[in-house]
Amino acid sequence: DTAVSQTPKYLVTQMGNDKSIKCEQNLGHDTMYWYKQDSKKFLKIMFSYNNKELIINETVPNRFSPKSPDKAHLNLHINSLELGDSAVYFCASSQESKALRQIYQETQYFGPGTRLLVL
Amino acid sequence: AQSVTQLGSHVSVSEGALVLLRCNYSSSVPPYLFWYVQYPNQGLQLLLKYTTGATLVKGINGFEAEFKKSETSFHLTKPSAHMSDAAEYFCAVSGHLNQAGTALIFGKGTTLSVSS
Rounded distance, CA B25 to CA B57, Å? Predict the structure, then answer.
C-alpha cells in the first residue's frame, strides 16, 4: 500500500488555467506538507498543516490555496497558472510526538511528486 | 534560522569506491538532521536521520552519517559504491523544534554518479 499518494503524477496545462493536485496519506499522521522542487532540484516548503490547521504559509503567491478536508488529505489548488509554476510538487506527512512538554518532529514521508508543466 | 550547505553539487565515484557526500548545517537550536535520496522521477526516500543520542547513524543501503557538533557537519558515507546508488542526495535540517508542522530545510542536493 502506498503511504503517501498524489494525483495526478503528471499535469500539463496552459497558462491561465486553474488546476488541483490531491494528496492522501494512510499513515495516520497528523501533519502534512507541500514542497516545491524547482528546475534546479531545490526543495522548498510551501505549506504545512497540523490537524487540519494551517501552520506554515511561506511567501507563496495567493494563487496557491491549500485545503485540508481531514487529517489524511491535503490538496493544493492553483489559480491562473503561470509559466514559473512549472515544477515538481511533493506532498509529505509526519507525526508529531510530545514528551516533557516538547514537540518532536518525526520523519517526513514524501509522496511520488506531481510534475506540473505550464505551457 | 536554520540552513544547510552541501559541498559539491556533483560527485563521481567508481563502483566499489568510497562515497562521501558533505553536509554542513547552521542551527540556532539542537538540530534534527536527515539525509534523503531521490531516484530519477521519483519521490524522496529517507536514508537516515539524527535526532539525539549516538552520533554515528546507520541507514538503509549501507549508508551511514556522523553528527559532529564541533564541525557542524553531517557527512554521508558508504564504504563501497554500487551502480544502484546513482541518484540525487539531499541533506536537511528541521526548522523549528517545539512547533508542530515545522518544515525541513534542504540543501541544494548532490548528484552522485557511479561508473563501472
Answer: 16
Shortest Cα–Cα distance, B42 to chain A (Å) = 5
- Interface size A-B, in CB pairs within 8 Å, comes to 74
How far A97 CA lies from chain B's nearest CA (Å)? 9
Residues B61 and B7: their CA atoms lie apart, in Å, by: 22
Residue recorded with cell 556522523: B66
Interface contact A33-B101, CB threshold 8 A: yes
The three cell numbers of residue A51 are: 490537524
> In this predicted model, what pLDDT tens digit does every residue of B11-58 receive, in sequence order?
999 999 999 999 999 987 778 899 999 998 889 999 999 988 889 999
At B1-19, the pLDDT tens digits run 788 999 999 999 999 999 9
Q: Is the four-CA dihedral A104, B46, B94, A34 of positive or negative sign?
A: negative
Inter-chain contact A55–B98, Cβ cutoff 8 Å? Answer: no
B95 to chain A: which residues are within 8 Å by CB? 45
